[in-house]
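Possible regression after last week's pipeline update?

I re-ran a chain I had predicted before the update to compare outputs. Posting the input and the new output here so someone can diff against the archived version. Not blocking, just want to make sure nothing changed silently.
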Amino acid sequence: MNCNQKQKKVAQYTKTVCWGYEAENGPDVWAQLSPEYRLCCAGIHQSPIDIVNPTPAELSPITFNYCSTSLNIHNTGNTIEVAYQEGSWIEVDGTKYHLLQFHFHAPSEHTVIGNLYDMEMHLVHRSEDGALAVIGVLIKSGSVNTAFNTFWHHLPSVSGESAQVNDIVLNAADLLPSTKHTYRYEGSLTTPPCSEGVKWFVLTTPIEMSHSQIAAFKAILYGNNRPVQPLNGRKLLVDTTEAP
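New output (post-update):
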């Protein structure tokens, strides 16, 4: 079914349904919920993707400069998001991207050779000229991840619920694996409006969280992952250098 046929089929939802992950408002019909979401169907450089057969390349390393922030956490109804205070950034290929927020999907959005992970964390950055760069971190079940314990029991369980806890301080650097090799490709936002031109850096090394930590998130949100999208001839690289 092409985009126009889908649009006719779900036209009744256009004015009344917000996007989500159910049959009536999920990824298959995002493009028909609003003209602003057209790229969710018509885009050709979409994310996530299945990571398979990446080309090794010697790429510019990513410089990470993350500072600590007080906890500002929000249940958007589609994910749980931690807003980040100004002053943290990454730099790659001479461009600095400022960390705006990080959020979670369960199960993962990116797959590796067709395999899903239990969860995925996205750290969303924006440059001064508005370009977006996202660090993707795959999460698998394993040992307790103590770096998440500082805020994990504050996960808001109700859509629209927020919590700002100034005496809880976290640093996104502590949430990353020690090895920071990346898969890299040009893609899009994985949620409406599915804007393209997003630089993706998916860390090749997953982090672990315990079964109970993962279950705590899934008890609130599960199935908030967009299916993988066609690569459509894009370059998929894996770096042979590492962030300093």
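Follow-up from reviewer: compared with the archived run. The chain has two domains: 1-42, 44-239. Marking as no regression found.
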